[in-house]
Amino acid sequence: MESERFDKDPSHRGFYPQFFRGLGSGARGLALFVKSGELRGVVRRAVGQTLNTQIAVLAAASAVFLILRRNDEHSWKRFLVMAWKWSRILSSGMIFLMEKKYHSMGAVFDAAVHEKSPGLAAVLEQTPRVHVAGERRRKLYRFFRILGFRCAILIMSWLPGLKMVAQPALKFAMTFPILGAKVAAGFAALVIATEWMEDSVLDEVFIEITEAVIDAYDFGKDSLRYYIHRLPSLATRDYFLNRYQGYITGMGFCYSLLMQIPILGVPFALIGECGAAELLVELLERNRLKTHGRVELLGEELVDTRKHD
């Protein structure tokens, strides 16, 4: 049964059940992509639009790095490590550019919604999007937040005495707005343990998980923006984002984590729109079954209702 509180932030007991259901929606989005030839074609065309740019950036970066490290016999190994660590930044930049020029994310979302519910897709197509002020600024903030975190980690690696204390503190500060204080504190404790073990591979794993957590909610919200921007009022948008915050964060974390994989960051970001379509249909079904404090959402009458636990 739903709590009377509608803001499912990390301090709310309903947040983590929602979070794990959101992860499930993300997994179903992957399955939807795999079984739909049309969706695979849309994603393939979208990736092709920026493939040459990605190759050019990687080639230029490798050339500069290898020239600077030409006397280092381990230069290739160091370059591959660097490429792994910074691939998320490159992928985020590519996504920002491809969405600005080609609107690729919207194309995948529309195709995925049509695959799940043609009636809902038709309603969304007929409903104009509401302009949201500061959207471009918010996207840039997302990019520079991850870039700033990665740069801070790099600086700390140059100061071993500072790293032992500062890195866990930074990860706690960056993750507790998303995970809540208790879970973030537990995560920071694991980070401290890896610092004592001095395991560079495990340390990098925790850094990448932290990046995925930092961007989880915003990733999920951005994946759903083609629906959210069609809601009729600010109050309705706030209701949707607050009541289903855990779901949105869980789905966003699923694909934010997959984006950490080098070279595949852009494809997984696009496939994230399939997860968003899966999540949207589930949330509309759930919302239709609500009784307390319910706000009607656009298109909820067009999806099949089913009993939820």
UniProtKB/TrEMBL annotation:
The chain crosses the membrane at residues 51-68, 143-160, 172-193. The keyword Transmembrane helix applies. Keywords: Membrane, Transmembrane, Transmembrane helix. It comes from the Eukaryota. This is Uncharacterized protein.
